[in-house]
Amino acid sequence: MRVDGPQANATNEEHVANRFDLPNLGIGLGLRTVHYGHILEHAPDVGWFEIISENYMQTEGKPLWFLDQIAERYPIVMHGVSMSIGSSDPLNWDYLREFKALRDRVGARWVSDHLCWTGIAGRNTHDLLPIPYTEEALRHVVSRVREVQDFLEAPLVIENPSTYVEFSGSTMKEWEFLRALTEQADCAILLDVNNVYVSAYNHGFDPDEYLAAIPYDRVVQFHVAGHTHNGTHIVDTHVGPVVDPVWRLLGHAHERAGGASILLEWDADIPPFPVAHAEAKKAEQWIGGVAR
Amino acid sequence: MTDRKPSPLLGGATEAFVHERASATPRNAVLEAAPAAHGTSTRPPVVASFDRLQSWFAASVTHAGLLSEGVVADGLVSRLDELERVVTRGPRLGALERLGVYHHGYRARLVECLADDYPAVQYALGTDTFEALCHGYIARHPSRSPNLNAYGQHMSAFLVEGASGVDLGTAPLAFLAGLATLEWALVEVLHAAAAPVLSLETLQSTPPDAWPSARLPRADTVRLLRLAYPVNAYFQAWRTDEAPTIPTAAASATVVYRHELTLWRLDLTPAMTALLSALFGGETLGDALAHIEREVHDAEELAEAERSVMIWFREWVAGGVFARIELPDANLEGACP
Ligand SMILES: [Fe+2]
Q1: How many residue pairs bridge chain A and chain B with CB atoms within 8 Å of each other?
Q2: FRET partner for B207 with CA separation of 20 to 30 A, picked from A17, A143, B6, B313?
Q3: Distance (Å) from the C-alpha of residue A207 to the closest C-alpha of chain B?
Q4: Which residue of A has its CA nearest to B193?
Q5: Is the Cβ pair B20, A33 closer than 8 Å?
Q6: Is the distance from CB of B54 to CB of A125 less than 8 angstroms?
Q7: Domains and CATH numbers, chain A
């Protein structure tokens, strides 16, 4: 694993490094339009930016103009919401071609999407819908991840989503499915520790059991985010500060991974850039000297 | 460009606001619970193939009415008390309530997208009526694209066709459709490629005797709108927090364009409209100028057109509204360097 910054001598020799040789970019932020002006004017000291791929697809105008400027100054990672890797519909090759072209345009360090599906029969719900964790679904998703990786000539990074239901017919836990998928398809993991926390609350499992099952040599990135607690359930709204139990999960997982890129997602009631940036930098307090 | 007041009267820069899509889940409303009378099935999980299960799930969470009706609509689940044979009860919520997060999130996300595209229509209708309009639109136009950038493209036509009978109160459909046309033009222009456009230098280097046969096609970042209401005046008043009320019908024409990173809206006089429409329609400059005399009958406006036509051209070219100048002799053709 390539490690940027002063952590090379950190006490993590026993930890596995990611097997894809993807760099640790340090602490980054999700790129949001309301922050374009601040970023271009003040050039804040941020490790990297993650974009929602679809915001820069099907457009040739203003969004790309800003992205090109920012990609000249910062490492970019692409994070998608519409690959629909878990759908029983055929893969959308028009989408994948445009996706690959965008990756090449901005020099994205890696690309990710979610362990989910977004629609069927040609219709898109634009939501991250849950997959039944069965052998049939596993075979299907493994073959699609392989196909996409062959096309991209790069590892696909798969993120665990927040979920609100589980299927009665599931025969595996999500972490068992994720582990089997990533090993059989040889793909990478974006571990969203907030999503682990949200799903654990919604379904009543132990988040530490989830973390214990992750193959950390495949983890190339972490997500943290705020959420909305409704008492009966938690919704992954990406709003507000990250709660301490989620930071604690990050600390544990980050240590097990021997360090990997960390990213804060903030998508509703987005504050001024310095506020979001300060929230992301809180990660430093939870990861013991392993990030830059 | 930003120093210049768009002529002749009205318009102004629109600070382009693209609201991006995210991987987050919208905040919930109250989730629908199953009636207490319904018990819980203790029978084994429903056996269904992967794609059958996905069809059912998508049909349920995109169902336009109550979720409790949606889950039993396609036959996989025969009665509500059988739902837990497909999705489980959670530690604190029943299966129907849990599924309700997706049912609510589906429409909420698309309403948010349409509100980003049509903020003035939302203002004109009020939040609740706008939401009802969106629900009608979502039912009529489910997304078929991985991308939401073009999701709202049918709104004007949807309004013209009667908005699926949604009760929109007293606002005339033709006004709302015109306002939607203007707002969609802003979205389109924002996403259009900024290709090279005709420059002032190229225009000025064109020999005067070549002018009558020249053609000046529209740049990709430009839209010319002819509307049945003074929609742009209304939009401008809304933008500047003047709380406009719905105007009476009166023909208007507005050109919407992007110059570098700023979007502009510029109202046109009838003479300007006649000229630009003809040019954008592919006619030569000579023929386009003749349209002014055919379509404008007000003597004062004709005189004003004669005095100002060169000024209009300079302003339009400075704003980047023409893609290039095309002359019969191909050697003289040119875009900006
Ligand atoms: Fe995430």
Answers
A1: 198
A2: B6
A3: 15
A4: A60
A5: yes
A6: no
A7: 5-290 (3.20.20.150)
- Domain parsing of chain B, residue ranges: 51-174, 191-332
Q: At which residue do the structure tokens 């004007």 appear?
A: B156
Q: In chain A, which among 120-159 make CB contacts under 8 A with chain B? A: 120-129, 132, 134, 136-137, 140
What pTM was estimated for this model as a whole? 0.90
Count of CA atoms in the C-beta half-sphere (13 A) of A282: 18
A61/B190 Cβ within 8 A: yes
Cα B252 to Cα B236: distance, rounded to the nearest angstrom: 14
Contacts 24+ apart (CB under 8 A), B132-137: B132/B166, B132/B167, B132/B168, B133/B163, B133/B166, B133/B168, B134/B107, B134/B110, B135/B64, B135/B107, B135/B111, B135/B166, B136/B163, B136/B164, B136/B165, B136/B166, B137/B163, B137/B164
Q: For residue B57, give the nearest of A55, A129, A136 by CB distance.
A: A129
Q: Measure A195 CA to ligand 1 centroid, in angstroms.
A: 7
Touching check for A218 and chain B: CB below 8 Å?
Answer: no
Note the ipTM here.
Answer: 0.92
User: What distance in Å separates the CA atoms of residue B88 and residue B94, rounded to the nearest whole number?
Assistant: 8
Q: Which of A54, A61, A225 is nearest residue B191 as measured by Cβ atoms? A: A61
Q: How many CB atoms lie within 10 A of CB B162?
A: 11
Measured between beta carbons, the chain A residues lying within 8 angstroms of B93 are 232-233
Q: What is the mean pLDDT of chain B?
A: 88
Q: What is the DSSP letter of B263?
A: E
Average pLDDT over residues A182-205: 98
Asked if A165's CB is within 8 angstroms of B55's CB, the reply is: no
Spatial separation of the C-alpha atoms in residues A192 and B166, rounded to whole Å: 41
Q: In A153-272, which residue ranges form alpha helices assigned H by DSSP?
A: 174-185, 193-203, 207-212, 244-257
Nearest residue in A to B261, CA atom: A62
The 3-state DSSP class for residue B259 equals: strand
B77: DSSP letter: S
CB contact, 8 Å: A233 with chain B?
yes
3-state secondary structure of A124: strand
SS3 B196: coil
Taking an 8 Å cut-off on Cβ atoms, the answer to whether A81 and B21 are in contact is: yes
Local structure of residue B32 (DSSP, 8 states): P
> What is the number of residues in chain A?
292
Residue pair B107/B138 in contact (Cβ under 8 Å)? The answer is yes
Tokens representing residue A135 in the block: 């052998």
On the question of pLDDT at A179 being above 50, the answer is: yes
Alpha-carbon span B192 to B241, nearest angstrom? 28
Cα B177 from Cα B183, distance rounded (Å): 10
pLDDT tens digit string along B68-122? 999 999 889 999 999 999 999 999 999 999 999 999 999 999 999 999 999 999 9
Contacts of B46 in chain A (CB under 8 A): 168-169
Residues 170-199 of A with CB under 8 A from B: none
Taking alpha carbons only, the member of B316, B336, B294, B322 closest to residue B214 is B322
